[in-house]
Write a structure and sequence with these properties.
This protein is 55% helix and 0% strand. It is mostly helical. It binds iron/sulfur cluster (SF4).
């Protein structure tokens, strides 16, 4: 049985039914969905997800091939000269902090996990530079685990659909978990993110062509 929402209340059957309808339509729109970030293994996914903060996936995909050519394994990046890494990832912004994080997390992986990305949120968030959102992305995407990563798109789309009234990502995650069957959690974030990019756009949502409009309380309120 799903748990309560972040405010302790239990969703009604009608609220659960609406959430299931949202998920169904998103699954119909995006039957196969994966992150737009390019990666070949869980460690690379972890690194590119950390690098994707405050920039576009395209920017990260532009520098990742050279980064992983120079540093093919966690042990290589763990021992890297920060200035060399900064030069490679410069165009993704916040490059000094990101360099520190990806070197430190690679080092921690090597020292504490034999270079293997743990399949466990509590262990993931202990890695340098890895927050709950990044941990959930890796759990869902790399391991197919039931985890919902809440970014700005998931936040916006969930609020417009009134699946939550919260702004805090952890509370939104709990509200979505409470409403949506666990089997649909792994691809949910990616579907909402892509939907937020394609249809439920931040400044000008395309309600006129949106298949969720009949069940969306915010439909047509942006003119
Ligand atoms: S109807 Fe408009 S606000 Fe609602 S989900 Fe669709 S695009 Fe977003």
């Amino acid at each position: 049985m799903p748990g309560p929402r972040s405010d302790g209340t239990t969703p009604t059957p009608a609220e659960r039914g609406k959430a299931r309808a949202v998920v169904r339509r998103l699954e119909e729109r995006y039957p196969e969905i994966h992150t737009a970030l390019d990666y070949e293994n869980p460690w690379q996914l972890l690194v590119v997800t950390v690098m994707s903060a405050q920039t576009t996936d395209e920017n990260v995909n532009g520098v990742a091939p050279l980064l992983f050519e120079e540093y093919p394994e966690p042990t290589d990046l763990a021992e890297a000269n920060p200035e060399d890494v900064e030069q490679i990832i410069f165009s993704t912004g916040f490059y000094r902090q990101k360099t520190k994080s990806i070197i430190a997390l690679s080092n921690a992986l090597v020292e504490e996990h034999d270079g293997v990305v743990p399949d466990d949120r509590d262990l993931l968030v202990k890695l340098p530079g890895v927050g709950r959102k990044t941990a959930n992305v890796v759990l869902a995407e790399a391991w197919g685990r039931p985890a919902i990563a809440v970014d700005t798109h998931v936040n916006r789309v969930s609020n417009r659909l009134e699946l939550t009234t919260e702004k805090d990502p952890v509370k939104i995650e709990k509200d979505l978990e409470s409403l949506i069957p666990k089997k649909s959690w792994p691809g949910l974030s990616m579907r909402m993110i892509q939907f937020g990019r394609d249809v439920c756009i931040a400044r000008s949502p395309r309600c006129g062509i949106c298949e969720l409009a009949p069940i969306c309380p915010s439909a047509g309120t942006f003119d």
